[in-house]
Write a structure and sequence with these properties.
512 residues, alpha+beta, 12 helices, 11 strands, 13% strand
Length: 512
């Protein structure tokens, strides 16, 4: 599958997943908004009804008090007083001479003259049906006006007497709490709530016992005694600490769906990553096979040619020629064996079956031997190799063969990736840093790009070298180096700049 095809399919599926998650998020937001609106409407309706119940309860209490007082007065009147009272009902209001035995409600009703008292309904035979009907209508009208006046006086008296009381004495707070809870439960809200009551001046009159300020910034307010003067009113404020959880509770049915969608999206991303990585590994393995073929082809061709010349009897062979051809065969055989060993060692390292014979060595001595051996190759490439082995303590516990190979690989890479426009300058140094040994190999070669620098230690990865088509390799050298350093309980890092060169720093623990 082409990279472009993978990219297009990944883009389409990725956009689809994001669109699905976006729509699910919009659905959750819409559901939460709708539930919040329903919650607000229910709370406001409950508060309004609670306020009405508060006023109605106050009216009932006053009427019960008046009724009880009236019954008490009636029971304590003598026969003559009752007759006087009965007479006073049909007598005009200004004919009442004594007010001592009257209730406040009776006194105010009589003093304000709500209407003329209805006359007794009497029919004379001479009036006829029409006159009787007219007389009856007048009677009903007068009775209605009288009753209306009485009710007006009752309402006025209730409002007047209640407004004269202290605000805190007008409310039964337990009854208020009970009514509020009943109204909320009737609306389907069974959440814990806290409330406070304030007078018209904003002074706190009452606060529920288990009051908590959590969520108080989102409170609901309701005016109490709305029919009273402004300075006699009160305010009821209610807030719900668990309101947010209640509102978002509607999303619980959708959140699992979003979770599954997100899991599918992450699984898809992981699958695409595996596909891309597998494709990259396949390309690197194909490149490795091609490079290995070329690497093996050259020594095999040289060995084959030298063997043919030795076996060709038509060619006169001097002793020097025979020695030269034998040297070519021996040299190319060693080269071929070295390449095979490199592949086998890397294979064993990947499987975890590599043999590691650790012993105490002096890193300065081993590195010095490698530098002396490699100096000739650097000189043939037109460069110079300097060694500054300044570490006072070079005792490390490693496998000497693999330690030698990793130093050799780093030096060999410096020669391979040298610049053509200036001589190679290769420097090897050692130094101590606490209980660590620092080994630095630095060159002035072509350098490594930043994007490649992160992957140079990957297996089979080879840096693109531009016009340097003569550079051969398997892409295993640096991967082998990092693997060996890690087995030696150390680490390696690379620093590079295009056109300026590369610097490798190996850090290994010293022997205590």
């Amino acid at each position: 599958m082409k990279r472009s095809t993978i990219a297009i399919v990944s883009l389409v599926i990725g956009v689809s997943f994001f669109g699905l998650l976006f729509l699910q998020g919009r659905i959750i937001a819409a559901m939460a908004k709708m539930r919040k609106e329903q919650f607000d409407e229910t709370v406001f309706r409950a508060l309004d009804q609670t306020s009405r119940d508060l006023e109605r309860n106050e009216t009932f209490r006053y009427l019960e008090k008046v009724a009880a007082q009236t019954d008490y007065d009636a029971d304590n009147l003598g026969p003559q007083a009752q007759k006087v009272e009965a007479d006073s009902i049909t007598a005009p209001a200004d004919s009442i001479n004594s007010e001592a035995d009257q209730t406040p409600f009776k006194l105010q009703t009589q003093q304000r003259h709500p209407s003329q008292l209805p006359k007794a309904l009497s029919l004379r035979p001479s009036m006829g049906i029409a006159g009787a009907n007219q007389r009856f209508q007048e009677f009903v009208k007068n009775a209605y006006l009288y009753q209306k006046g009485v009710l007006d006086e009752v309402v006025y008296t209730i409002l007047y007497n209640a407004s004269q009381k202290d605000f805190s004495q007008r409310i039964d707070f337990r009854l208020l709490d009970s009514n509020l809870r009943a109204e909320l439960e009737a609306g389907g809200i069974q959440l814990e709530y806290h409330f406070c009551v304030y007078d018209a001046n904003g002074n706190e009159v009452y606060r529920c016992e288990d009051y908590s300020a959590n969520g108080a910034e989102h409170s609901y307010s309701q005016t109490l005694f709305r029919n009273d003067p402004t300075d006699k009113r009160g305010i009821l404020r209610v807030h719900f600490p668990d309101m947010d959880e209640y509102i978002l509770g509607v999303a619980r049915s959708v959140l699992p769906l979003m979770g599954f969608t997100l899991v599918l999206f992450l699984t898809f991303c992981f699958t695409v990553w595996l596909i891309v990585r597998q494709k990259r590994d396949t390309e690197m393995k194909n490149d490795f096979i091609n490079n290995m073929t070329h690497e093996f082809k050259t020594p095999i061709s040289s060995i084959s040619l030298a063997a043919q010349m030795l076996g060709d009897k038509s060619i006169n062979k001097s002793e020097a020629m025979i020695d030269n051809l034998s040297g070519v065969i021996v040299g190319e055989t060693k080269r071929l064996r070295y390449q095979v060993e490199k592949v086998l060692q890397m294979s064993l390292y990947e499987k975890g079956n590599i043999r590691f014979n650790e012993r105490e060595i002096d890193a300065n001595v081993v590195i010095d031997d490698v530098v002396k051996t490699f100096a000739l190759k650097v000189q043939q490439a037109g460069g110079t190799l300097h060694a500054d082995l300044d570490a006072e303590d070079g005792a490390i516990y490693v496998d000497e063969m693999h330690f030698t190979n990793l130093i050799f690989n780093l030096l060999d890479n410096a020669v391979k990736y040298r610049r053509e426009d200036q001589p190679l300058q290769l420097r090897v140094s050692t130094a101590n840093q606490g209980q660590k040994l620092l080994i630095t190999i630095e060159d002035n070669g072509i350098g490594i790009r930043h994007d490649d620098l992160r992957r140079i230690f990957d297996r089979f990865y080879r840096v693109h070298t531009g016009n340097k088509h003569d550079v051969k390799g398997f892409g295993l050298g640096l991967s082998y180096v990092r693997g060996m350093v890690e087995l030696m309980h150390g680490n390696i890092k690379a620093e590079s700049e295009i056109g300026r060169g590369t610097k490798f720093t190996i850090t290994l623990p010293l022997i205590d």
